[in-house]
Amino acid sequence: MIFVTTSHDPAEEQVKKAKKLANELQIPYLPRKDYPNICAATQGEYCYVVEKNRLVVKSESGEFFFHPSMAKVRMKNIQKGLKDHLIECLQLTGDEIILDTTLGLGTEAILMASFLDSGTVIGLEASTPIFVVVRDGLANHRAKENWINTAMRKIQVIHADFKQFLRSCEENSYDIVYCDPMFENPVFESSSMNPLRPFAVYDTINADDVDQMFKVAKRRIVLKAHAKDSLFRRIPVDKIFGSRRSQVFYGVIEKK
Ligand SMILES: C[S@@+](CC[C@H](N)C(=O)[O-])C[C@H]1O[C@@H](n2cnc3c(N)ncnc32)[C@H](O)[C@@H]1O
Fold first, then answer.
1. Is the C-beta atom of 209 inside 6 A of ligand 1?
2. d(Cα 43, Cα 99) in Å, to the nearest integer?
3. Do domains 3-63 and 69-254 have the same CATH topology?
4. More exposed terminus of the chain, fewer Cβ within 10 Å: N or C?
5. Does residue 195 line the site of ligand 1, with CB under 6 A?
6. Which CATH class is domain 69-254?
7. Could you tell me if the CB of 212 is within 6 A of ligand 1?
8. What is the pTM of this model?
9. Domain spanning 3-63: which superfamily?
């Protein structure tokens, strides 16, 4: 069963937030005092737990909550003078409207948003639990670093499957379209991704999807894949950025 509950001894606001979420998702709200063992109550599915300062999805395979820690690590590396291959290949001027078709944890959306002044990032996520948790985190998480708070509030999140969404968009609606599907060859050492895996959607990109991205993008498309994945063997790109050490590559298709 999929349901919403709170942590033990919740404050009134937690109960209110949990009931509102249950109502939005059209799933039951279960008072925590009646369900001390929530994992058993999920019966192989998952539940949302409204904690004091965060929203957590719990299932027998683990828990998933929002945290911008990887964006912080990547920004620290940029400040040290190291290359970030995504930021390098985006060639941002600051006013771009970026469509991030695979929001996930929101790490790269935060990083991209931090390089925008008047621009914004629109993030799509097909998985309901990932969408709900990351939407909540981007709106309510308070980081010590101001740049993270500013970047998070610049991201607009939409619960949508990018395949359908792209087909409903007008030509040239966004400056850049970014797509980072789940790797065909997962890097389990990438521990920040591990909690998301049980809840993720595992769609792959095909040539027709790329045609749609090309239609929707004004300037360029950026696709991400692992070196062992088939993506860049199936889809021709203009230029590939990345490092052999990490085995993670970004392929760019320029519009003009
Ligand atoms: C590798 S993760 C993206 C990570 C993200 N770049 C970040 O920095 O956190 C891929 C995400 O895309 C989502 N996804 C997969 N197929 C999708 C689709 N058709 N539409 C929207 N989201 C999709 C998955 O559920 C997952 O959350």
1. no
2. 36
3. yes
4. C
5. no
6. alpha beta
7. no
8. 0.97
9. Brix domain (3.40.50.10480)
**197 in ligand 1 pocket by Cβ < 6 Å?**
no
Q: Which atom of ligand 1 is nearest to the CA of 196?
A: 27
CA of 200 to the centre of ligand 1 (A): 7
Domain definitions of the chain by residue range: 3-63, 69-254
- What length does the chain have? 256
Q: What are 82-125's pLDDT values in tens digits? A: 999 999 999 999 999 999 999 999 999 999 999 999 999 999 99
* Of 63, 61, 1, the residue nearest 35 (C-alpha): 1
Query: Does pLDDT of 190 surpass 80?
Result: no
Structure confidence at residue 244 (pLDDT): 83
Instruction: Report yes or no: 72 and 108 within 8 Å, Cβ to Cβ.
Output: no
Gap from CA of 13 to ligand 1 centroid (Å) = 30
Phi, psi of 15 (to 5 degrees): -65, -40
Decide: 108 in ligand 1 pocket, CB within 6 A. Answer: yes
123-178 pLDDT per residue, tens: 999 999 999 999 999 999 999 999 999 999 999 999 999 999 999 999 999 999 99
